[in-house]
Amino acid sequence: MVTVALIVACFVSLACAQFHVARNLRLHERRDDVPDGFSSKGPSPADTVLRLRLALAQTNITGLQNVLLDVSTPGSAQYGQHLSKDEVYEFAKPTAEASAAVNSWLSENGLSATPLSPAGDWLGFETTVAQANALFDAEFSTFVHDESGQEAVRTLAYSIPATLKGHLDLVHPTVTFPNPRRVALPIVSTPVSIVSGNTTIDATAPASCNSAVTPACIQELYGIPTTLATQSSNQLAVSGFIDQFANSADLTSFLKQFRPDLQSSTTFKLQTLDGGSNSQTPSNAGVEADLDVQYTIGVASGVPTTFISVGNNFQDGDLEGFLDIINFLLGETNPPQVLTTSYGQNENTMSRSLANTLCNAFAQLGARGTSILFASGDGGVSGSQSASCTTFEPTFPSGCPFMTSVGATQNVNPEIAASFSSGGFSNYFGAPSYQTAAKSAYLTKVGSTNAGKFNTSGRGFPDVAAIGHDLRVINAGSAVSVDGTSCASPIFASVVSLLNDRLIAAGKSPLGFLNPFLYSAAGSAALNDITSGSNPGCSTNGFAAAAGWDPVTGLGTPNFAKLLTAVGL
Ligand SMILES: *[C@@H]1O[C@H](CO)[C@@H](O)[C@H](O)[C@H]1NC(C)=O
Ligand SMILES: *[C@@H]1O[C@H](CO)[C@@H](O)[C@H](O)[C@H]1NC(C)=O
Ligand SMILES: *[C@@H]1O[C@H](CO)[C@@H](O)[C@H](O)[C@H]1NC(C)=O
């Protein structure tokens, strides 16, 4: 176990009651205004307890990012040589200077902090509003989300001592606010819309996809084998948030109807963190969670699948468990080879520094050999959900260059872009090297269309796509039809897991971080290029799908046979 000597004991009780106001405070982060939908109720009571987090400067995060690209780029001498937990730790641990500076500052202020990540670069401590205001020259105030009534204590700006500059990346929660959608709609969730409840299901599910999308249709559409995977070390993980529980009875009836060739007792293993649970009460069955397990277990035939239920006792504040689950998996000796997540939100709900902290955690897990996939969002160019806007809203965390963002398609013959498929360009992260050629080819085609509404220098997303319209799901005993990029991420993740099964059987490394492979000539040629449809929003037609990469369907949808060849099988 990795421990960090940052737990500072309070020896002199007098010292604990006081704190020392640093001179030399330097502004560290600020936001111009209160986010839409929130109002200030004025300064928070001085004795309100705050659970603050500190992100410490890491030893060599640029080196880790470079190593990630080396181990993930086909043809590189290091390709497939994923790092161990200890090797990643050496890059991600705080610098000695950061540990010393933060440690002595905590100690001077009678504070003790606890490491919340395996590398010890993410620390938590408790304080009060009065002390936090003094420590950070902040004005912690109570903000209320008008629609939900949810309250949050935040500050619009804070400073840190000059001695911590370069050593402390951020203090959190401060300038990032909770995601309002977390309460208003079923939350951080990329929404799944129930198109028609109580649908009559044809048990002889059509392979043709004519009346609905089922596993048989997806297998036919993408040439995905129905034979069972063989490798027990291969793991496909599905994350669950916001009290979305995967229901075993729903899974059983789904398999009976749509995968009668699989044992209907096939189920998921469970892991929990942050107080997550596994309610099997039918009324607690979440559509998102049911969709995600049914379209992994039902498509990735025989791949051991784990549902990771993240509770609401977040250690990462407004990241609402997104960082916690990555830290949880970084603590494992053998993390899953694939992780799919169908939740997201708009990028502008996060501070840049917080987005960067999460993105660097993805780089760590990618270096361990995990493919991290997220649904791109369901609001077209207007963000994670349909909304009014004047400039396009990129989604989070799809802007991070160290994960794979999955958009959605609809229809077959031809498969076209789903109009809700979120895509665009990040305002926080620049285009990674693996994407520059694909992105400039697209921007050339776009010309001046939508000029000024998006950031041409940002990382483009999504990277790939899969079908996301009219999927049959069993939820709380009833068949429902579901739309969304939420459908696409588990399907693409299942394809990756089946490729990994064959790679592992052949004594090769799993694919790990996918993008350098996907954007390579061999990778992109193994995807079905989607060239029609668009993702309207913000009173525009959005972006149009086009030959090659586009910010609606990425490089395209999977062709299993071609992918097998492309990965060298
Ligand atoms: C950071 O890591 C890279 C990649 O391993 C290495 O080449 C470089 O020397 C490291 N830099 C420092 C300052 O340790
Ligand atoms: C749902 O299905 C039941 C049984 O077939 C039927 O009686 C009922 O009318 C249906 N409800 C709706 C809203 O279609
Ligand atoms: C555009 O994106 C880049 C990242 O490539 C970022 O540094 C810059 O601040 C963004 N511009 C705006 C106006 O958000």
State the main characteristics.
binds 2-acetamido-2-deoxy-beta-D-glucopyranose, 4-stranded antiparallel β-sheet, Rossmann fold, disordered N terminus, 569 residues, 16 helices, Family S53 protease, 2 domains, 8-stranded mixed β-sheet, 21% strand, 27% helix, alpha/beta, hydrolase, single chain
> If helices are DSSP runs of H or I spanning 4 or more residues, what is the number of helices?
16
In CATH terms, the superfamily of the largest domain is: Peptidase S8/S53 domain
Beta content: 15-25%
Total number of strands: 26
Described by strand count, sense and barrel closure, the largest sheet is: 8 strands, mixed
- CATH fold type of the largest domain: Rossmann fold
Shape: globular
Taking the alpha carbons of the first and last residues, their distance comes to: 38 Å
Classify the oligomer. single chain
CATH architecture of the largest domain: 3-Layer(aba) Sandwich
Number of domains: 2
Helix content: 25-40%
Top-tier CATH class of the largest domain: Alpha Beta
Any ligands, ions or cofactors bound here, and which?
2-acetamido-2-deoxy-beta-D-glucopyranose
Radius of gyration, whole Å: 23 Å
Low-confidence segments, ≥5 residues, pLDDT <50?
1-19, 182-206
Keywords: Hydrolase, Protease
Organism: Auriscalpium vulgare
Protein name: Family S53 protease
Commentary on this structure:
This is Family S53 protease. By secondary structure, this protein is of the alpha/beta class. The chain has 2 domains: 4-58 and 93-172, no CATH class; 191-566, Peptidase S8/S53 domain (Rossmann fold). The protein contains 16 helices and 26 strands. Mean pLDDT is 89; it is low at 1-19 and 182-206. The structure holds 2-acetamido-2-deoxy-beta-D-glucopyranose (NAG) (3 copies).
